[in-house]
Design brief:
With 77 residues, the chain is mainly alpha-helical. It has one domain: Orthogonal Bundle (434 Repressor (Amino-terminal Domain)). The chain contains six helices and no strands. Helix 2 crosses helix 3. The protein is globular, with a radius of gyration of 12 Å. It starts with a helix and ends with a helix.
Length: 77
């Protein structure tokens, strides 16, 4: 299962990598990677920082769309 598909798509679209995303949430690339792969959880502050970053890039995203909607859609299939 691919976790956080919209987040992954935006990371790729904007040419970001795990290091740059880790910097946004004041973590290392290893920690960001663990969160992205479900080995650790994103904090609410992480979620807000990531959402705000992509909104500043012109993306119309919400915390739900980045971190929760994909999970509910998968479970309801």
């Amino acid at each position: 299962m691919v976790m956080f598909p919209e987040l992954r798509a935006l990371v790729a679209k904007h040419g970001m990598n795990q290091q740059s995303m880790g910097n946004i949430i004041n973590n290392t690339y290893v920690t960001f990677g663990r969160k992205l792969n479900g080995q650790s959880e994103f904090t609410f502050n992480d979620m807000l920082a990531i959402r705000n970053f992509f909104r500043e890039k012109g993306e119309n995203v919400t915390v739900d769309s980045l971190f929760f909607d994909w999970k509910f859609a998968k479970e309801n299939c």
